[in-house]
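Single-chain item
Fold in token form
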Amino acid sequence: MSFIGVAYASEAAAAAAEGAEPAVSGLQKMLGAVYPNPADIWPTWVAFLILFFLLWKFAVPAIIGMLDKRAATIKESLEKAEETKVEAERLLEDYKKQMAEARGEAAKVIDQAKTAARAMADDIEAKAKSDAEAVVAKAHETMAAERAAAAAELQAQVAELSTAVASKLIGETLDAKAHAKLIERFVAEAGGLNDN
């Protein structure tokens, strides 16, 4: 029994012992303002139990169902997020692989371009070298021809000069036959000098 019940019971017993109607004392009046009489609150208890039963029967399953549904939604969202993460990782790997392949292809193209440029440079160098050698050979031929022409001119001048000198030394003019012989001899001697 509670303290309030004991207080009510003791006051009622005192009132019964005095043979009088239990009067509302100051304590009961004071406690009654704060604590209701237990006999007066049983409808409240019944109402509370009915409400608790109704809540337990109808509201709690609905709340549990809503929580289960919410948990299922969260679980599904987490699974989708995980699938999205896996897909993103797969796409990232594919991207990295494609980038590596692109870099490899770019390196191959650069190597091919370098090889082609090197071959082109070699061709240009070979052609320039061939052209230079042709120019040098042509220059040598031109020089040889000019030297031969100069030698022929020199031989002609030497022949004229030797004829003039020989005519002065002999004191007479050489005839055509003697002149021709003398020229041939000087030309032969001049040719021998050029060969040396």
